[in-house]
Design a protein that fits this description.
Shape: globular
Distance between the termini: 43 Å
Largest sheet: 6 strands, mixed
Number of helices: 11
Number of strands: 12
Strand content: 15-25%
Order of helices and strands: EHEHEHEHEEHEHEHEHEEHEHH
Radius of gyration: 19 Å
Oligomer: single chain
Strand order of the largest sheet: 2-1-3-5-6-4
Structural class: alpha/beta
Bound molecules: 2'-monophosphoadenosine-5'-diphosphate
Length: about 280
């Protein structure tokens, strides 16, 4: 193991090293908290990933974020917590002594963003979640952990919703995509985890007329910032939690683990990332 003498640094590991907002977020926190540290992007191909993270400290890092296509391997090559295991993917790595630990911060990103955007949202007993991919797993884990008693899970491909219901237990009820309309009146929280509404994808065309006036609508899509679903929720005067808020909140835990201070999601940080997302 290399002895680290310089400032602490973390990195984002991906392949290709996609354009990510994580450096912008972590550099903002380093700057505003006055911490001397770094956050690099590391392009690591699949065949080099195991060596890279098994010698992460030797490469000069106290921890890392992991993105596509490495999140499942990161889980297998580290000591995951319950969240990472339930989601089936790890996105944040850190050392506990010599041990390389991992978690999935999408769970708390989703939940903490709901807490910040729609306090009291968890008074709802029922939720309706759309989509059954990786993002949906993080959402299901968070909702159940916070005490939501029943989650209806609608997915275009029913079998994937069924598979998640089998994994998460009796509180999760798989339903046909066509049943969304009739489930809206009972849903205190509606969450879109599909890619519908994302730039270049068709909108998520749902008539929100059936939702109760105190229902909360969350969308994980953040490009565009205001998805057609969120625009429809706004038009109805419903409370909303957007994808950018989740992105910012999911970054908090990694920073805290690597640099020892818990940073805040401020309006200034949000404006900074918003400007980056909307620039040409
Ligand atoms: P992620 O890991 O980001 O959740 P994913 O695993 O590719 O990504 O999941 C994408 C989700 O968007 C899935 O629930 C997918 O539905 P299918 O399981 O039927 O593929 C959903 N999705 C994508 N395009 C869709 C569309 N046109 N209509 C409905 N659902 C769609």
């Amino acid at each position: 193991m290399t002895i680290q003498t310089g400032p602490r640094a973390a990195c984002l590991i991906g392949w290709p090293a996609a354009h990510s907002r994580s450096p912008l977020i972590h550099h903002y926190w380093l700057r505003t908290l006055g911490i001397e540290g770094g956050y690099n992007i590391e392009a690591v191909p699949p065949e080099g990933f195991a060596e890279f993270i098994l010698h992460l400290s030797g490469h000069g890092f106290v921890g890392a974020n992991v993105t596509r296509p490495h999140k499942e391997r990161a889980l297998a090559l580290s000591e995951p917590d319950a969240r990472a295991r339930a989601v089936g993917a790890a996105n944040t790595l850190w050392y506990d002594g010599e041990k390389l630990c991992s978690t999935n911060t999408d769970v708390e990103g989703f939940i903490n963003n709901l807490d910040a955007s729609a306090p009291g949202w968890d008074r709802a007993s029922d939720a309706l979640v759309l989509g059954a991919g990786g993002a949906s797993r993080a959402v299901l884990f968070g909702l159940l952990e916070r005490g939501i008693t029943r989650v209806h899970l609608a997915n275009r491909t029913f079998e994937r919703a069924q598979a998640l219901a089998d994994q998460f237990g009796a509180a999760v009820h798989p339903v046909a995509w066509g049943a969304i309309g009739e489930l809206l009146p009972g849903a205190g929280v509606l969450v879109n985890t599909t890619s519908l509404g994302m730039h270049g994808q068709p909108p998520l065309a749902i008539d929100l007329g059936g939702l109760a006036a105190d229902a909360v609508v969350a969308d994980l899509v953040y490009v565009p910032l205001k998805t057609p679903l969120l625009a429809a929720a706004e038009a109805r005067g419903l409370r909303r939690a957007d994808g950018l808020g989740m992105l910012l909140h999911q970054a908090v835990r990694g920073f805290e683990l690597w640099f020892g201070r818990r940073p805040e999601v401020t309006p200034e940080l949000r404006a900074l990332v918003e400007a980056d997302l909307t620039k040409g």
